[in-house]
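Regression report. Comparing outputs from two consecutive submissions.

Submission 1:
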Amino acid sequence: KLYYETNTFNCFSCSANGDVIEFIQLKEKINKHEAILKAKTMIDKNYTEVTKVEEMKRTKNLPAGKAGEIDPLTRTAILIKYLQSCKLSIDRTKAAKEYCEQRNLNYNKLNIGYSSPSIYTKWSKQLKENAVKLGLLLVHRNGNTNRFRNCITFELQNKEGKPVGIYGRRIVSADNQRDKSAINNGLGSHFYLPGKHLGLYPQWPKANSQKLILTESIIDAATLIQHPQILKDGCQTEFVEVLSLYGTNGLTEEHIEAIKSLRNLKEIIFFFDGDEAGIKALSKYEEVFKKLRPEIELSTVITPDNEDINSLSVSHEQEIFTHLLNQRIPLLQQVEKAVLKKGFVYLDGESETQTGLSVEALAQAELTKVQFDSSHPEYIVFEQGDIKIMIWGKIDIKHVNRLRATLHIQLKSNLYAEYRDTIDLYSNNQVSRIIREVSAKLEVGSDIINKTIAGLTKNLEQYRQDEREKSRKRAKQENEKGKERFTEAEMRKGLQFLESKKLMQKTYDYIKNIGLIGEEKNGILLYFILLTRMFNSPLHALVQGKSGSGKTYLLKKIAGLIPKQHIRITTALTENTLYHSLEDFWKHSILLIEDLDGAYNALLPLREMMTNQSICKYTTEKDMKTGEFKQKALYVEGPVCVAGATTKDKIYEDNANRSFQIHINESHDHIERVLEYQRRYISGLTERKTEEEIQMIFKTAQLHLRPIEVIIPFGNDLRIPDYVYKKLRSNSHYMTLIKAIAFWNQKQRKVKNLPDGTPYIEATIEDVEWANYLSKEVLLRKSDELSGALRSFFETIKNLVKDIEGKCFYVKPIREKLRMNPMQISRYLRELDARGYIQRTGGNRKNGYEYEVMIWDDYERLRSGINALDEVLAKLKRKYGKGNDPDTPINQD
């Protein structure tokens, strides 16, 4: 089989494999050198058998033993094999791929390779000897050493497009302290083949090139060529090429030859680093290229201080290059450079001997001397010559399609000669008007005012760009602050927890110890609901209870087990806030609303987000260019898991139907247990450190979970009771809960593959048993036609009536027992009466009405119906032969 992408072959019969040259060598039964010559005859028709014989004679007479003494054909063949091996190696090396990602380099697109220390071990003896001559391998006492070990590699090409050199950039290797120490000390980071540099990167520029961008380093050039359209937009031509020098002093003869050969070349653009070395190199190259190609325009890109092309790519959007290229200036003007320092832009006052500038350049620089001070919080000062301009209120940095400024223009020699106006510096009409008016009022030539306004505009653009970059960095830093950081030891604890036996039992026991008195089952159910944020269709939770019953407490305790970067906690939410969210802000995260009353205006889009995992709204906005109104779609994408608390059950019924309804225990015994815990907590008798340890373990454990499909192999046998309200939605919730429990146990399960190659794990009957244990109470409540609060009220009435051994009761004893508002009791009684659960049998308004309980066993019937889940579970165990497992919720209560 032939692999065209890697130029390799493999024979599955005899296990032979290798590259093109090795294929010819095996097929023709010849040695490697003859195979290389054979390959040349196949691709070059002018290369006859006579020339082949002559070249074989010539190359056989070459002296051996010294680096570089190797014929061109063998050199090319060795480099091709070596570079192909490097390209195959990078896919298998995590450190190399991570380094490329950190430097924002697409290694596949750029044909970057990775040279592992042992890349040459399977080479033949002859190939190794030639590699030593070439300088790829270094000879030491203990054997050969790879010159480019632990380096990402770049191919340097000659005019014919063949590899003639290699550039290696060593990365820090965690398992090689020598490499790490060398790089930390600034040594041994860049590697080339011995001898003079051969070849250009990324290639010899094409003959039709009109503009050529020169960079300091190969990595800078690689960064640019990833975005050809951005370069075309920045240079306003399709015929733009990028060429890398080898450092500020790395202009070789091949560079000069290549530039001389470009007959259509109109402009050379220097895109060097924003440091002292880069600025000084421009002065040298300005003289070189003026002599080399005096007819070509020379320009330079103003690189921000202490930045280079690659660092800009990492910290900014790629459009920064289009902007910087559009703002490039003539090279001579940069040689007379202005340096940005502490908010001031001023001319470098170095002497001619320091900078190498000509006397004419220094004189011209003095005429264009400017000062730009943005340090004051309320205004900016710009000075050029005798003109001083104050920009009050600074400028708007959010919009780049306009540059509105309130200007106060005056002469430093005559402070009473002044002019004030607010204009848009991007409006040609307004700028022309202000030049005329200022020139007339201050009695200064219009040419001087024109240059001053142009200088002000460029400085304001640079200031705005710098402020935008600072704003992006601050936003990035704020985003990083929101992420929790864990040590390697803490991460290992989370992984060990996931891999431990009886994981579900440990999960239950740990959650019992975070202060959830009497709400352990609700707590673990809520935890698994929030865990489904990693699914494409997550579950949602609605916690209901009276005011002060502990709804928010339950939410916050379980939220404390979630990594901060995965949860958004809010007390209020508006519709506009939801529709104007940042891209990917909600993806696979949790929206926790402490009280749904704070999100009342956003209930409709919130419901749609819960159901469809995305929302869309059309709005109208004005086009700043045409002034016409146009439609704009506001699209927000999930998936997002929504959890909230409320005291009201009917108002949020539509949201409740899409959620697991968790009811807070409000019994007298439960309240007493909570009060006892609070007293012990205040007295310092509880283990607070234990709770913090549990939170850390759960957070790190979740960071080890990876998205994977969950299959329920016995899903066809699962049934939910007929009593359940809205069976379609409830059945989906029940199945997803089973998947969530299996997903939590993914480190315990064997990973399998679907026919299409998708990896998955299988749920077990124990997962169903845990799901039944956690959800029965919720499904029972959901099957009940009475709300949670009304059901609790009715059960209390039945218990009170049983205590007095009768069927009738009055309202007054109920109110004294429950201490409820009379209006609320009346509302509950009317609803129970309307549904036939009670009936008014006597009494009057003055002395109170008498009521009789008409239905006694409705809740027991519901409970027995819900127990059908256990019957289905028992059938599954009999059918699949699964007995009780130690890690099941039996006897948890």
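Submission 2:
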Amino acid sequence: MNAATRAVSLNTPIADTAAIRAGNFFQGRRLTSKDLGREQDNRRWADAWLGQAVGAGIAWGLQASQQGAAAARTLQVKAGLAVNRAGQTLRLAADQLVTLVAQPDAASPGASTGFGPCGVLSGSTTYVKGNGLYLLTLAPLMMDEGTAPVLALDPGSVRCNTDAKVEAVQLRLLVIDDALLAAHGLDSNVVAPAAVSRLRNAAAYACFGFPSVADAHRHPGTVPTDSLIDALARRDLSPCDVPLALIHLSGSGIVFVDRWSVRRRITANSAADGAAPAWSALIGDEMDAVGEAQLLQFQEQLAEMSAADIGALTAAASFAWLPPAGFLDASGARQLNWRTFLGAHQPEREVPLAAGDVRAVLAAALRRDPVPVSAATRYRVYRITASAQWLFVREAPNSPHAEEVWLDGTRAALDGASNVQQAIDMLRARSCRQLVLWPGADLHALLAKLEPGTDLSLCVEAGEYQLKMPLVVQRLGHVTVHGAGAGSRLLIDSGECALRVNECKSVTVTNLSLHADRMSSGKDETGIGVRGALTVFNTPSVRIEGVRASCSGSGRIAGAGIVVSNPAGASAKAGLPSSVQITSCELSIGRAQVGILCINTDLAVIRQNLISCAGQRDESLQRGIVVAGVTASEVRIEDNVVSQATEGISVGLSRREAAKGEALLADRVIVSRNSVTLRVTDGEERNRHGIFIGNANSVLVQANRVLTEDRQRPEVEVDGVSLIGVYGRQVIVRDNHFEGPRTGIVFAPREDDSVRRPRLNLEQPDRVWLFAFNVAELAAEALQCPAELIAAGVVVAEHNIAP
């Protein structure tokens, strides 16, 4: 039974041949050189085992860099301290100037056999000729120093009279042969600057172990194949060597010195390395050190490029790999355009990052894999606050850290979704979309990507949006557009429409601010002649609430604050009634323009809106609220304030397209509790009105107030309420207050044989036409109505006062 299979009892001493054996010194024991030598070896072995436990790498210093002209092939290596894989501590006490070519007149100091595994090391060379990649290392060397007096009686001692064994160090240069380079896809025979840059970068990542390590990350449990350093370790690179730099030499001299491709901080081996090598790519301190080295290698290579090369630098031309994170100068002579540099890897835009968050973001990014330039992986670019640098980091598929979030897809009604990214992808694949607009975004491009019929929730973040053309939402399903009130402002200076909704199933617009700065003439492609800062066309269901809209004046009616229009007969063709609700909006309207215009809607509800003129003190808007077209089942205009208008509220429904015998096109019109202030400007001397209603079956005009500012101009005809047209069985006008109009109420019903209703029967009235409790201050008369209608009792007039 051998030692590997023989059972050992507990508390049994276990020792091997390599165990430290300290000499047992006692009085009278004879001491020999062998005894003292064993004590020295014991000290060295103890130090080596401690060094192996701490880990291999560079503690500080030992930076290698080109010194002087490239043709001199001379390096400077700074003083420093390192630990090799054998556990030995290597110290370079002072900066050294090292030549990489043979010096025929140089004398080498005497060397002797070293300690333990680091005896006489082979493989070191000097540069001879041609292109090649070399590895510069620091290794131990034992030197003989001085002589010691010996006893003449012992002739053998005379031959071993060295006074001291000096634990020195040496710099070695190991050639990486072409076969080894080819196995890792490298060719050192390049001369063009971009090709040399790609070689340097590719060689560094071959030393890092990529792409093999990335494959092991994608397939956990896979053992990565040898990196370039691992492969060299099977040849000339001993456990006693500490790699310092990768050097490219050519016939013209040093091409580059790349330190961080092979230089590592001290890292301890994982406890799982020996027992589970398949997991070494996923755990342990060494992978963190490699991530840091990738960043530092990139920054060093970038820093050594000339400012002229930096200006047009692209990753695709000069790099084979990109690190998981890196910094780029955002200003100064070495400023680098991140879009040009990243190319296909660039994000849509940069995002700000507080300086205090840089360390956390960088630490998370460095634990991700680097990216081949040929891959389609994107990066995120941060503009560091109060800094002249950008930070780019690899964008994880579920960034940031969403892959760590567990999601119950079944509970969320998203079967098959187990992480946040899958859930988002599944939601985006549905017919309803959530879309956010922000200042600086390409608004038109974002909307153009939507498929016809898609339901849309459009959020307009706070900010000012300068538009060169209207923002158009068209041919979608149910649309919601909401903003942050006055903080979300769409402005257009090249037309009268800032936001236009065309041919959607429904639209809701809330808490948005819109401004149109210039009026145009003629109809647009929808056939609308008058367009609003907010325009909705051929959309059967419309709700507008909390909108601020403004438009500039032009001296003629060309624009409006809000326009909702449907083609004539559209609702009948679609088989669905159209409806419009406009509530709690604030409109600032330019000279001779319109506040709210609704055309061809079955149901129009206009409530609690504030409409005023945006012009000079002596200017006025043309009309406050207009409901027009050829059809309307019900119109309700309530609790609105219209000021500085030539005409206040108009409900004028045309009957030109009605066939003979059809019912009246407006079933019910209610205008109540509105406040209208009229101003008649120069040249506006034709008849004006505060409220006008024509052609309706049922009319209720109640508790409105109409004020005329231009009382000093009696030559201008101004009516408080004007009812001219065809009316049905009920017209009620009561409790209204007029101050300034020359006539309070004008009622002029017309006969019309083209509608199915009985003609006026003066002998037996068949309708209720009531005018009561209306007050017209400063007016010539409170009610103007055909006398025969009052005499026949068709019109009932009670308590209408004109003081």
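Expected: both submissions complete independently.
Actual: both completed, but the second showed a warning that disappeared on reload.
Relevant detail on submission 2: The chain is about 15% helix and 35% strand.
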